[in-house]
Write a structure and sequence with these properties.
By secondary structure, the chain is mostly helical. Helix content is about 75%, strand content about 0%. It is built from twelve helices and no strands. Helix 1 runs antiparallel to helix 2. The chain is globular.
Length: about 240
């Protein structure tokens, strides 16, 4: 469905990605796909469909040359790092073979000693930047719709956190909550806290900028992102928000 939406309207696909990804783990739990990286599946689906759709470019907003160079340098450094690790691991052929086998058969279940998964996620992030700039050139109204989708996704995740906290949700997700002691779709508290803190700032700015009727709709979004930040229980994210 995400692929079809992206092929039809890349801007709508990007907005759907921003909305769905924060609760991807809960979606996977509902479908009994434990251990499956649903969020990455969404990202890869969007990028693949966008690449199929992307054709000739249009004039419009561009990344500054320094940022473009930094992006290429980051990608090159990440891939070089994985290559160097693989070269060093040649001294341990059994470990290298086991790592390659895990990457080939179940990359979404294990972290690999070569850092290939980390490199892939960095490159995915750069790909999302490129896709966003490409879509902005064709649909400048994305400057309004994308922040709404981002903050709504955060609010959805915050609401899901409350439900899980109250014992409402898929059985396996609730079991993970009881084991972790925090909402089951928040595994990395600092990453989740940073996410909610950034969205809370964005939502507050949008609320201040909005007109009276729209402001009333933004207030609950601000509140739910704030609750998500509180439930993530990341002191560093709270400090960053204050700063």
């Amino acid at each position: 469905a995400l692929a079809v939406l992206t092929l039809a309207t890349p801007a709508a696909g990007l907005a759907a990605l921003a909305l769905l990804t924060p609760v991807a783990l809960v979606i996977a739990g509902t479908l009994h796909l434990e251990g499956y990286r649903m969020a990455e599946m969404f990202v890869m689906t969007f990028l693949a469909a966008w690449l199929l759709r992307a054709g000739s470019d249009r004039p419009g907003p561009r990344l500054p040359a320094v940022m473009t160079a930094a992006g290429w340098l980051l990608a090159l450094a990440a891939m070089t790092s994985a290559g160097v690790l693989a070269w060093r691991m040649r001294e341990f052929p059994a470990d290298l073979a086991d790592t390659v086998a895990r990457l080939w058969g179940a990359y979404f279940l294990f972290s690999d000693a070569l850092g290939v998964g980390d490199v892939a996620r960095l490159v995915e992030g750069l790909g999302l930047v490129a896709a966003t700039v490409w879509i902005f050139r064709r649909q400048p109204s994305l400057a309004v719709s994308l922040p709404v989708a981002l903050c709504a996704g955060g609010a959805l995740a915050g609401a899901m956190s409350v439900l899980i906290f109250e014992g409402i949700g898929p059985t396996n997700v609730l079991a993970a909550y009881r084991k972790l002691g925090r909402p089951a779709h928040i595994f990395d508290v600092n990453a989740a806290g940073s996410y909610f803190a950034m969205l809370l700032c964005l939502a507050l700015a949008a609320t201040a900028r909005a007109r009276r009727m729209a402001r009333a709709a933004w207030i609950p979004i601000v509140v739910m992102n704030g609750i998500g930040l509180w439930l993530a229980d990341s002191r560093s994210a709270r400090a960053a928000l204050v700063i």
